[in-house]
Amino acid sequence: MIFDPRYFFVVGPFMLLALAASFYVKSAFRQWSKYGIRRGMNGAQIAAEVIRAAGIQGVRIERASGFLSDHYDPRERVVRLSPQVHDSTSIAACAVAAHEVGHAIQHQHRYAPLALRNAAVPTASIGSSFGVGAMLLGLVFSAKPLIAIGIILFCAVVLFQLITLPVEFDASRRAKAILLDGGFVNEEEAVGVRRVLNAAALTYVAAALTSIATLVYYLGFLRSDD
Question: In which band, very low, low, confident or very high, does the pLDDT at 78 lie, cut at 50, 70 and 90?
Fold first, then answer.
């Protein structure tokens, strides 16, 4: 099964897309990291100003570790920014910082898809940890019930990634609007913001498509007599 050509035919193209998307977002970030915003604010300052402009209370900003490890933690209400974003005055850093604050704004406004995604995290974690393993064991031992169990578990991963799409798209939409309407960037700088955030969005699309293709591949074994 390791070298099953069907796997590379069904899932392979989307894995390549995911790799390309990852390369693209890093390339876009590097490109727009070369240009600073005219206001000279770093990512942490941009995040703080956007939080103030949105009228959000109780959200902290912290410096995280790791390359592009930026995220919003809804449990602790913390926007964590990687060193490349927290300390940089670049257009790319501005875009990423505003995007993460976009999630804090979603949380403040009780944006339904975000609440749904947060609720789905435990189930998706279980599905990610045990779903593929169960499907693989089912193939090894030709046990369709085990494959079916793995598929059910893995469906949680697919659902989580599908829910993630509107959450991420909406956060980017909010970031673009706030940065431009609030005067944090001008029209020229907004071009870079859009390119960085659009590149990041592609990674989520590629991940969702890869998971769907993986699910389709294993569903084929339930219909097969092999």
Answer: very high
Q: What pLDDT digit, counting tens, does each position of 12-50 carry?
A: 999 999 999 999 999 999 999 999 999 999 999 999 999
* Tokens read off for 68: 């592009």
Question: Choosing from 49, 62, 76, 100, which is the catalytic residue?
Answer: 100
Domain encompassing residue 27:
5-223
- In the chain, the DSSP E strands lie at 60-63, 71-73, 78-81
At residue 85 the predicted structure's pLDDT band, cuts being 50, 70 and 90, is very high
Task: Determine whether 189 is an active site residue.
Answer: no
CB 126 within 8 A of CB 156: yes
Residue type, 129: S
User: Among 69, 68, 94, which Cα is nearest to 192's?
Assistant: 94
Q: How many domains does the chain have?
A: 1
